[in-house]
Design goal:
Helices cover about 55% and strands about 5% of the residues. It has helices at about 35-40, 45-70, 80-90, 95-105, 135-145, 150-165, 170-180, 185-200, 220-240, 250-255, 270-290, 295-305, 310-330, 335-355; strands spanning about 10, 25-30. Helix 2 (about 45-70) packs parallel to helix 14, helix 5 (about 135-145) packs antiparallel against helix 8 and helix 13 (about 310-330) packs antiparallel against helix 14. The chain starts with 7 loop residues before the first strand and ends in a 10-residue tail after the last helix.
Length: about 375
């Protein structure tokens, strides 16, 4: 790059692993300001949330189907099926949604059209001297939410220094209280601040002719639809009495607190890497024919197979086939086939219930 005389600029976030001790040549590093993740990174502008919403919706619909099939533990799921559902959730995100999130961030220049005056014209962000007092005030609120060292009196002094004689305490008190109520939870505080902006409740200033708050993120239409469907599925589980207590809110489902935990606890699991490696090696040897797994009950079961299956046996076989589709599915429709088998098992359960007859006392004597 240096020999070619090329110079580039790289924009990165403030993740601790992105900071380096040396100064690279021909590469200029520019770090985003704090709390800009959802505004400048397309995946965090709605793409990741859309994937999560699709997965949670599929998980809840699966639970409803298992309830129809009279399963006891409708929330139990193995890792492989969860991975397949996650893959389908990503495939469900449309190109329009991805474009929407990229356009929202504005991190790339607009594509010139045939009627444009010049093909090199790009959108230029507003300069600092055009920033209104209101916007500076919101910057202080966000800094107060993100900082663990800034106190309430310090935040108030910063606001007063910006507005001087025009500062009105009651205008900014709701925003300050919102940060305090979050109790040092930065994510919770920022979400509450965004709700204030979405409520179209701009903070007025006397000297500002444009007191509007920073424009909030408008979620993609697909995300709005899948979130509504997810809420409806949760309500259905509540009606079926499969949720005890208060259901999780939409935010709690899509942004669980466990995802914000950082440290070794995130990577601790039973068995560790050695168990995973041993299991994979054994499966590879079985596929290659090096190991044969014998089931002693196979020979006995072969001679005892009935000519006609009962409804109960058919239900059990469907359940086994569902597991096989998940564990040994090597093509894209394996999860879909498992869903069809589950639907057929629901049909058999209903048929069995309709054919059941009330036993009389004579039956027991």
């Amino acid at each position: 790059m240096r020999n070619a005389g090329r110079n580039i600029i790289m924009f990165i976030d403030n993740f601790s692993g992105h900071f380096i001790k040396y100064e690279p040549r021909n590469i200029r590093l520019e770090y985003f300001k704090p709390n800009l993740t959802s505004f400048v990174q397309p995946c965090d502008a709605g793409i990741i949330r859309c994937v999560k919403a699709h997965y949670r919706r599929a998980y809840c619909l699966r639970a409803i189907e298992l309830d129809e099939a009279d399963e006891h533990d409708i929330y139990k799921i193995d890792l492989l099926e969860a991975m397949l559902m996650a893959r389908d959730a990503w495939d469900a995100v449309t190109a329009e949604t991805i474009k929407h999130c990229w356009h929202h961030t504005g991190i790339q220049p607009p594509i010139p059209t045939a009627g444009s005056v010049t093909a090199t014209t790009t959108a230029t962000p507003p300069s600092n001297h055009n920033t209104t007092k209101t916007e500076k005030g919101w910057d202080v609120i966000r800094e107060f939410a993100a900082s663990s060292s800034m106190t309430l009196p310090q935040a108030e002094e910063r606001l007063k220094s910006i507005f001087e004689v025009d500062y009105v305490d009651q205008d900014w008190r709701p925003a300050l209280n919102t940060v305090l109520e979050a109790e040092n939870d930065e994510l919770k505080a920022m979400e509450a601040i965004e709700k204030l902006t979405k409520a179209n409740n701009p903070i007025p200033t006397t000297n500002s002719t444009n007191p509007a708050t920073p424009s909030p993120l408008l979620p993609p239409p697909q995300l709005q639809d899948v979130e509504q469907s997810l809420v409806a599925a949760v309500d259905e589980l509540k009606v079926r009495k499969r949720i005890i207590g208060t259901p999780l809110t939409l935010e709690e489902m899509l942004n669980p607190s466990e995802e914000r935990e950082i440290g070794d606890l995130m990577y601790r699991f039973e068995g560790g890497d050695d168990e995973i490696v041993a299991t994979v090696q054994r499966e590879l040897e079985i596929e290659a024919g090096g190991i044969m797994e014998l089931d002693e009950s196979d020979d006995e079961a072969e001679g005892e197979m009935e000519k006609e299956l009962t409804t109960k046996q058919a239900i059990e076989l469907c359940q086994q086939m569902e597991t096989i589709c998940i564990e040994h599915g090597s093509f894209g429709d394996s999860l879909s086939l498992a869903k069809h088998l589950r639907q057929y098992r629901i049909h058999l359960n209903r048929e069995q219930a309709q054919n059941m007859k009330q036993k009389t006392l004579d039956h027991f004597f």
